[in-house]
Design a protein that fits this description.
The chain has 2 domains: 75 residues, no CATH class; 37 residues, no CATH class. It is an all-alpha fold and 131 residues long. Pfam families: DUF8040 (PF26138).
């Protein structure tokens, strides 16, 4: 992530979403801890070593940042698509029967997912991943 993007996100979370600095941990450090946790997927022991903080401080940083992201930030910046199908899909008989109940964009996005073993075959995409 570029520095200017990180700082804009940090300012947004501080001004509009309630992310606050504490006595020993700044809001920027909380956001950096959360992003490191979310992007790399490492455990709290790795974060404790990386940021030189206790397990409780790391946990509080992650939870406070997550609370800001799933609360006010989410409602302000993320909007679900409408239920209306685009006219290009409704008018085309080769698309509409298949995409009639789909919601959202069809843009060849692939997301890795974890599903139950018995349902795995239904969720395998063209790239061979479960998603």
């Amino acid at each position: 992530m570029a520095k200017h993007v990180f700082f804009r996100l940090s300012i947004e979370l501080q001004t509009c979403c309630g992310l606050r600095s504490t006595k020993f941990v700044t809001a920027d450090k909380k956001l950096a801890t959360f992003l490191h946790f979310a992007c790399i997927g490492c455990g709290t022991r790795v974060l404790q070593e990386r940021f030189q903080r206790s397990a409780e401080t790391i946990q509080n940083s992650i939870y406070s940042t997550l609370a800001c992201l799933v609360g006010p930030f989410y409602t302000k910046h993320l909007h679900l698509p409408s239920n209306d199908s685009p006219p290009e899909i409704k008018k085309e008989p080769k698309f509409y029967p298949y995409f009639r109940n789909c919601r959202g964009a069809i843009d060849v996005s692939h997301f890795h997912a974890w599903v139950l073993l018995e349902a795995m075959a239904c969720y395998r995409n063209l790239k061979g991943f479960i998603g």
